[in-house]
């Protein structure tokens, strides 16, 4: 039954109730001469209409429950997807940071080699005949300047990536950033104080890249 038919029946029932006289049981027509509505048929149709409304209400409730369950399922799947994406993003960030760490350690190792070459060059003392050869002298000077320039550029590149050397000399031994590779005795220094660095350690922000290998002051023991 469509909506228009339902509304027509309701209006006819309302008109019948408004014009109905309980004392006039013999009246068959209303004042306009039109036949009165069959109340039994009207009640029957209204009962059918009520049943249809109930059925539609149950169907609507069932549909609403299904939509609510689907919405909850989609919400859970969305949360699960968000967690998976976050874990994937964290894993990708950790992988990238680990790759950067290996690359920086390679840079640091290269710097160690160049710094060792610079120390060797600075300690080089040309002989008398070498000083007489101006060409060889200029070549040695150019070589030293090139090594120093390369070392400076490496330091700048590390600094741009927030990598800095660990300040160890004169500091008390820190086992979190330093490893003892030797001991000496200096009466002017306190025990456990770092006297020199055998190999420089490095930090990237607050992350330890490499431990510093240090020589520490050892307290003198009495016989």
Description:
The chain contains four helices and six strands. The chain is of the alpha+beta class and 223 residues long. A three-stranded antiparallel β-sheet has the order 1-4-5. Helix 1 crosses helix 2 and helix 2 packs antiparallel against helix 4. The mean pLDDT is 81.
> How many DSSP H or I helices?
4
Structural shape:
rod-shaped
Specify the biggest β-sheet. 3 strands, antiparallel
Across the major sheet, the strand order is: 1-4-5
Classify the helix fraction into a percent range. Answer: 55-70%
**Low-confidence regions:** none
Chain oligomer state:
single chain
Report the average pLDDT across residues: 81
User: Pairing-aware structural class of the strands and helices?
Assistant: alpha+beta
Strand fraction equals: 5-15%
Q: What's the total number of strands?
A: 6
What's the topology here?
Elements: H1 3-19, H2 39-122, H3 128-132, H4 134-160, E1 163-165, E2 178-184, E3 194-199, E4 202-204, E5 207-210, E6 212-217
Helix pairs in contact: 1-2, 2-4
Briefly, what is this?
By secondary structure, the protein is an alpha+beta fold. 60% of the residues lie in helices and 13% in strands.
Describe the structure using short key phrases:
alpha+beta; Nucleotide Exchange Factor Grpe, Chain A, domain 2; single chain; 60% helix; 223 residues; 6 strands
